[in-house]
Amino acid sequence: MAVIAALLLSPDQGLPVPDPAAAARVIADRFTPAELSQAGDYRSWGRLIGVATLITQFAALGFLAFWRGGPMRRMLERLGRRPLVGAQAVGAGISLVLALVDLPFNVAAWKLGRDYGLISQALGPRLFDWLLSALITMVPAALGALIAMALWRRLRGRFWIAASALIAVWAVVTTWLWPVVVAPIFNDFEPLPAGPARSEVLRLADRAGVEVGEVYVVDASRRSSTVNAYVNGIGSSKRVVIYDNAIRDLTPAEFSALIAHELGHVEADDLRRGLTFALLVIPLGVLFVQMATGAVMCRNGDDPRGPALVPVLALWMTLAVFVLQVPGNALSRQVEAKADRFSVSLTGDPQGLVDLQVGLAKANLSDVDPPSLWQFLFGTHPSTLDRIAIAEGAKVSVRNES
Ligand SMILES: [Zn+2]
């Protein structure tokens, strides 16, 4: 108890030092070579599909931004007669093109997941989800294009200030509304019924002294066998969401470690931290987008007040998001490591966290030690190896202090 209290009261002094050697031993003990190579194959194919998707999306956007052949020129000219309506059509069109370009990779990812027993959804419902999200995405794309066009025509050099402010408001509002409006379109969310799972969540929340909001269970098993839980929403929509798979498949110690990790996010207000990071980098990104867009439109000979703005803007915005995600992911990995340390300090059971990481890696076919460039660019969480190292390190500090 003293260890837990000390860790809780002085997280800086109590920080366990990760133990990578112990983590490597855990992995050698708990995974068979066959399991490791199966997960490695699955993830290699997954990375290949991911990179191919990214390259194709950028190629499509680059084509729309730079190609000014006859048909494109005529279409932009026709749409330019009513630029605000034209911009909406172009915005929705780009969103549709990107969804269509994504379709073969989406099906490939589905096939891969089915082959490795990770995806339970049949192809029909998967395509229905794809269609639904393609249609839904067209709405904000059209709206965004309309607003961008109106601001660009009115403000020019000061476009980035107004656009940054609007994107910031959009980020806050979607964080608030996503769990209540969008997520329920794709899944069923039920308040977690009374029982051992709910009691454990409330017990840990009470011990951590955090206000969790409502606790929901989501029917994730409808799509896949992956195990997870997450915290989202802000203010009145704040909630902890647990996959039904997690309640069904995890041992009590693993379940406690998972919930304590999520409570770590609530306690440290990590959603707000993520939003703050976004709000800080958005103006920087939008200023770059404005300058690059102006330069390309000038080079293309586009009407500076016409809807040709939209594809050029879309290309640079996508690039800016991609680049800014790299430091964003670095922050996310730190936040996740901190939530893991919080989990150990709350449950006082590092072994529960080790077992959870081993179980998650097996159930989700995670690459326990992914290529470092991939991890640097896309890793939102520390690797399984690093997370086990954190838990093993915590064991050493629990032993030393007791
Ligand atoms: Zn987390």
End-to-end C-alpha gap: 9 Å
Spatial order of strands in the largest sheet: 1-2-4-3
Order of helices and strands: HHHHHHHEHEEEHHHHHHH
**What does the radius of gyration come to?**
24 Å
Fraction of residues in β-strands:
under 5%
Number of domains: 1
> How many E strands?
4
Bound small molecules, by name, code or SMILES, are:
zinc ion
Shape: elongated
Main sheet makeup: 4 strands, mixed
Could you tell me the mean pLDDT? 90
Count the DSSP helices. Answer: 15
Instruction: Supply the helix-strand structural class.
Output: mainly alpha
| Unreliable parts | 1-13
Proportion in helices = over 70%
Multimeric state: single chain
Q: How would you characterize the overall build of this protein?
A:
The protein has helices at 2-9, 20-30, 33-66, 70-79, 83-115, 123-155, 159-186, 196-208, 244-249, 252-268, 270-300, 309-347, 350-363, 372-378, 384-401, and strands at 189-191, 214-218, 229-232, 239-243. The termini are close together. The chain has a 4-stranded mixed β-sheet, sandwiched between helices. Residues 1-13 have low confidence and may be disordered. The chain contains 15 helices and 4 strands. Bound molecules: zinc ion (ZN). Zinc ion binds at residues 261, 265, 336, 339.
